[in-house]
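The data are passed on as follows:
___
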Amino acid sequence: MPFAARVVEVIAVGGTPAHPRYRYGSGCIVAGGTVLTAAHVVAGARTVKVRDPNKVLHPATLDERFIGEGDGPGPDLALVELDRARAHVVAIPLGMVDRGSPDAEPVERCHAVGYPWFAERPSPDAVRDTVDAYGHVPVLSKLASGLLSLYVTGPPRPLPPESASLGESEWSGMSGAPVVAAGCLLGVVTEHAAREGSGTITITPLTALESDPAHPGWGPGVSDPAEWWARLGVPGLSALERLPRRRVRPEPAYRATVRRIQTRTRELRGRECELGEIAAFATSSQGYRWLVGGAWTGKTALTAAAVAALPDEVQVIAYFMSRVEADADSNRFLGAVVPQLADLFDEDPPVANREQFDALWERACASVAATN
């Protein structure tokens, strides 16, 4: 099912004395007939209806076991079940923000899609249109509460002063709206704090379903998270993809050349002593070792085999010069070695010139000295 078809309106109907009688929110069909929304939208409701993007109303069922706490320590999350099961709706991938990421990069290209009050079109049926609140989620915002902030690129206009004074929000109706990034559902919109401005809305993440002993301020979770995860279509918290995804940097191209050289010699015989000496040198404090041999004595084969057999703690920067292939060229040397040095620091390769080589080589030497 396309994501746009998953986004629905959630209409909670209270009893006769209830004020207001109707509460409007947003939600997302996560799997089968299960709709994820905010707890404060449906808590205390007598009945709940779900309106799909085609404006067709569907009856739904509430189960108290799957209603969190809209104004308490528990997560402001709820699951509503459509009376007509939609078994063909496959589970949407779920994700979580990696708040322990070493670089603390934000989660970019986030979408919160829902039916806010300001998107209501004048009509006898008070039809609301969808709004795609597009922005990014900073990894380190709201660390004390365990919630998330979505910084919206194009926020709505502020409400008139008379409406704002009543505590209303321009985002009213957006509660329960799914927040997705990289194709994964992260959580739902649950609050807009006026003091943060119209461009910031609060998200309750799916991770709030489970307590975290390392962060007691993030809430107690729900009483039976396994049942919630089953309704959401995953086995548990470990199935959530961590965002932002770490970019996998391709390996330096010259390593393929090293592997090609290594495969030329199927078996190296009678060189165990020399291989042991090279391994001992690589783990010693010696500055350099010069191996001399005549033509066709297997210098390249020996060195290639030695590189392959070095211990894991040895980081190798390799360059093989062959008279046949005219590799005794400074530019080709820099083009092969500079990317390998940059890879040691998990960095994109800079321009392969002498200045960059000197700077990276100095950093590599300092790094080795610091660990010895």
User: Anything to note?
Assistant: The radius of gyration is 30 Å. The longest strand covers residues 57-67.
